[in-house]
Amino acid sequence: MSQPLSPACSPAELEARLRLHLLPSLGPRRFHTLIQAFGNASAALSAPAAAWRVLGVPTESSDARRSLEVRDGAAAAMRWLEARDQHLLMWDDPCYPGLLAELGDAPPLLFIAGNPAILEKPQLAIVGSRRAARPALDTAAAFSRSLARGGFVITSGLALGVDGAAHQAALDAGGQTIGVLGTGLQKFYPQRHRALAAAMIERGSAVVSEFPLDAGPVAGNFPRRNRIISGLSLGVLVVEASLASGSLITARLAAEQGREVYAIPGSIHHPGSKGCHQLIRDGALLVETVDQIVETLQGWQRLPPLQSPVTASHALVDLLLAAPQTTEGLASSSGWPLPRVLAALTELELAGRVCNEAGRWFARPG
């Protein structure tokens, strides 16, 4: 099996948990209630229906637990786990991500395709509109590249638009990224990002889901997915969102979970800015630079304050006018710490002063 089991979990108990997980209307809280009441999933499955009813578990879940469909689904999941780069994390596993475990409705099971170790690394979520304008996609990509180069894992929902731009930019920067699905891993949605997800898995990143492997795209599952995006992360950056955007759900969940919420402002005439502006009115931090994000994260890779934005711009642009350089080369030639260089480059890229091609930075004329 590709992912070692928790010491307390035998193969029989794993199969029992997978069967519980497949029951309709159970959900994370009722799953935990059953385990706490009976000690383990195997005992819960063999308990009388009356005991389940006393615990408030819906009748359809109790009736379905011995069905052939549930048994077959658990057996299929066990076979899925035998493949390379396919894993399962359970909430009592020592490798279960600590931030996510803080949630009252933490997923009891997480299916993972790719590298499970990155779920414990410091993460920042970048989310936004599925129909984002080009400037918003460029902004999401620029922030993602800089944050990924600075050591953050970029977490998002693998949706079209801002999510996809953030994932791709993190990969392009040589960083790591996590995609959280609102479907099962065998019912990937949206199909247009299947190649992106495959690249993430191949290059040391991960795609995760709390849903059974064959769960299709059901509207109610996506808000549940959003709590995992925010729950894994130190903070959530909303790049562009309408007032009806699911990104606002992610941001509000983040605030409830005690995470930082950041929003990028936009034109008052653009509908895609209204969601970010509402978040700012509700207390989200208005951000224009990566530095403003990092400064709020209680010293995690805190950047030394720049003497002045103008000085920073001239210093780096002058170096790049002399010759294109890598990020590490700029850090060496400028004498600045790498995080400060990354923050300054992001500002310069957003201003159109520099561009990155094949891993090297170039000064733009003008």
TrEMBL record:
Q: Which SUPFAM superfamilies does the protein's record reference?
A: MCP/YpsA-like
Residues covered by the DprA winged helix domain: 304-359
One Pfam annotation reads DNA_processg_A
BP terms from Gene Ontology: DNA-mediated transformation
Which residue range or ranges hold the Smf/DprA SLOG domain?
88-297
Q: Per the similarity annotation, which family is this?
A: Belongs to the DprA/Smf family.
What protein is this chain from? DNA-processing protein A
